[in-house]
Structures are given as structure tokens and as C-alpha cells.
Write a structure and sequence with these properties.
Helices cover 43% and strands 19% of the residues. It has 4 helices and 4 strands, in the order E-H-E-H-E-H-E-H. Helix 2 runs parallel beside helix 3.
Length: 127
């Protein structure tokens, strides 16, 4: 009998100098983890905060996780997602050839997320 694939989900955010900036991302991580108890859900940052994406993947791989999905928690596909993230992923794949690394589109481009943001904006009109 083969062992089930260990899965990891990384919420990948930009990072900021103010530690408080990460609070909404931490809440998102916690809410996601609560709904996916069979996966490890964590945060990684492009810059200014830790852990980095390569460090996060390395830690997951050391724990036996062999399939990782990266969700860019960005509103759109700008330069960081078009250039920086692919370069980081190339580095990660080279360092962990037995690991499957999947990257999805920016969270802000998802139609459901767009609807939720539009609902929020429209609700602001009522205030």
C-alpha cells in the first residue's frame, strides 16, 4: 500500500515593513487551514517579510510534503507574478526535483473573489 500524497498550500503575498500588514493574510491562512485539515496551509512572502517561498517549500519538503500549490494573494498579474514568481518557482523546482509545485492565478482575478469584492464595494454605498 502506498502512502497518500502529502499536500501543502502556500498563500503567497508581497510582504510589507509593518508586521500588522500580515494580519488579514494570517486570518485567511487560518480560515483556509480550518477547511482543509488534510493539507498544510502556510504563508510565504516575496519580500520584506519571512518566510520566503523557497524557505517555506524547503520546510514542507523536509516534513514529507511532496505536492505544493501556490496561491498568489495578489489582486492581479503584475510584474511580481509575471517575472519574480516564475523565477522563484524555477529555483524551488531545481532544489526539490521530487516535489510537484503548482501555481494558480492571482486570487483577485478569480470571478468569485471579484463578486465578493464588488458586493463589499456596493455594501459601502449603504453606509
Amino acid at each position: 500500500m502506498t502512502q497518500p500524497t502529502q499536500r501543502g498550500l502556500i498563500l503567497f503575498a508581497h510582504g510589507a515593513r509593518a508586521a500588522s500588514w500580515a494580519a488579514p493574510f494570517e486570518r485567511l491562512r487560518d480560515a483556509t487551514q480550518a477547511q482543509a485539515p488534510d493539507a498544510e496551509v502556510t504563508l510565504a512572502f516575496l519580500e520584506l517579510m519571512t518566510p520566503s517561498l523557497p524557505d517555506t517549500v524547503a520546510a514542507m519538503a523536509a516534513r514529507g510534503i511532496d505536492r505544493v500549490t501556490v496561491v498568489p494573494v495578489f489582486l492581479g498579474q503584475g510584474g511580481h507574478l509575471l517575472r519574480d514568481l516564475p523565477a522563484l518557482c524555477d529555483t524551488v523546482r531545481a532544489a526539490h526535483p521530487g516535489l510537484t509545485l503548482d501555481v494558480v492565478g492571482a486570487i483577485g482575478e478569480d470571478p468569485g473573489v471579484q463578486r465578493a469584492m464588488a458586493d463589499y464595494c456596493l455594501a459601502a454605498l449603504g453606509n
